[in-house]
Amino acid sequence: MEYLRNGNCCQQKSDELNYEYEEIIKRLGYITSLYGYLKINFKRSHFLLFRNLSYIQGDRNSVKRKFKNLDKICERLIKVRIPRVRSLCDSSQFSVLKEVNWNLIFVGFFDSSHESQWETIHAYADIYVIHHWKNSRKFQSGKKTTKFLSNLLINCNGRPLEDGKFQKIHEFSQSQLFHDTSHLRIVYSYLLFKLRVLERRTVDYSKIESNLQINQNNGLYAVHYELKFPFYKFRSNDNDLKFYLLPGEYEMRLEVSLDQPTESLADFTNNEMVIENFSDSPERIWVREVSPSSSVAKEYDKWPRILFRLESSNSLTKLDTNSVDIKPYISNGVIDKVSKKARKAKLEVNIVYKFYHNNHMLQWSRSQSVKCPWCNFICEKSNAKLSFSCLVKHLQTFHARFTFKHWVISETNISSMIIEVRLNECYDGSIEIGLRSSMESRSLEKPERKLPFTHIVYCSQMCKINPMVNNPSIDLRPLVWGHNRKYFYSTTGIVKCIGDLDVDSEAEDNLDWLQQMYFKRIEEFTDVNPGEKRIMQLWNSHLLDHKYNGDFMVPILTKSFIIQKGAEIKEHNLRNNLLLHLVNLVEFGVLSQKQLIEVIGILDQM
């Protein structure tokens, strides 16, 4: 009976274990099907998976669910909705959309400095607003294109327009850019400039061969250009800059649009431009070169450029203020007087950024605020000198991809500074981090570069600009522009100055004090006879005089050692000590027996 009772207990435990095993297999089957679903949908839309296995803990059927009344749910949503709407209306983002108005002013269209056969005589611009949106729940994405401004006349190469003016002001508000997009979840937006340009041939027709019958009216040629100007990108952090529209002057290189036809001039006739004696022949001889898909610096000067300026028409907006008005605090019906923070006087500065590559300036930009152009970190201090030093320290510390050179120019009313920006050839990408938040990583549609390490809080104590060194012999900068490589001492790791570059670096380790130090250390050995000490001293001295890279050069090293030190070895009768040293090299496997016999034969023949 006892045996049967124990058998029943074992059978019961095995049944419980089998039941638990089946439950684990059943719940892990959900994970397998989940990963299969993710594998299929990952091909359509890329997203990140945050692992969470909390659903394995219990079954939904075993948990009692409380069903809420629909009226209670609607009542709760209405209570939550009203404060959210008020907070959105009072937020800085929506107030900026309502208040900020912009003036777009085209400075002009300028041909390339290398262009000598074509001259632009008319240019018109159409501006489109393109919003890219994404719905992560339904795995949908797309873009919305709207024609924003059309038929904007631009002066060409400094010539006045038809009404005698050089520039026209085109006004628009920032809220117009997001018209009819409230139902979309916008990821990023940009302005697409489409330029229709008419060029005229400036070649001398008298130099062309007489057998080519060319109509001189065919010297007119229509070209379409495009450029993109981003102005919005979704950021999960409210402190990050979402709108890229900043006041300033912009210069951009134009590339030929392959989507637009270049044979017809019908677009120009719609703008009341009269072309006398023009015949659009399909057999054209003058063909415009297509813009290459290259980002080489020399390609920059081959193509025309357009200059335009953005100005804020508001005298004072929330973008320009450093303090916010505090509303009066009401307590028990009595308005308490709350002290308001005095507005800071706006610091008038003028900073010019010049971007160089291969000792050639590619472009420049001007800013009237002490703000980092990459991460928009505000470096404004009490005066212009401290603000400039803060900006320079920030650029040198957190933007290691570039090298900066600056000059401060003091004027009567406005302080100015010129900053030259060049690529840092020694940059290895070590100061890089990932995305700023997990929410931002989910909104990506394609791989992006890592963000620079720039959102660290700036230390206000680092507010001193190092004076420029006037003595070129102790300067650490290179002699040749564009050559930013630094040289270091091999023993100490200290950066070499310009005056020490001509000194032979191979003589650093072949110093008299270093040989004396080696000799003294060998003399301190007590378990070695004087002959072995002398061989070790000669061998170390030979190693300091000659540089060898590996064990395969040991046979060459021993032969040169015998040739140079053989007379001294015979003079002090150190042949047996040398033989013992060479036998040790054979035991270590860096010298063969045949090479040992050959080396000893050289010594005996001397």
TrEMBL record:
GO cellular component: ESC/E(Z) complex; RSC-type complex
Any Pfam family hit: Zn_SUZ12
Family classification: Belongs to the VEFS (VRN2-EMF2-FIS2-SU(Z)12) family.
Protein name, entry field: Polycomb protein SUZ12-2
Residue ranges of domain Polycomb protein VEFS-Box in the record: 479-595
Database matches in InterPro entries: Polycomb_protein_VEFS-Box, Znf_SUZ12
Limits of the Polycomb protein SUZ12-like zinc finger domain: 349-424
Gene: suz12-2
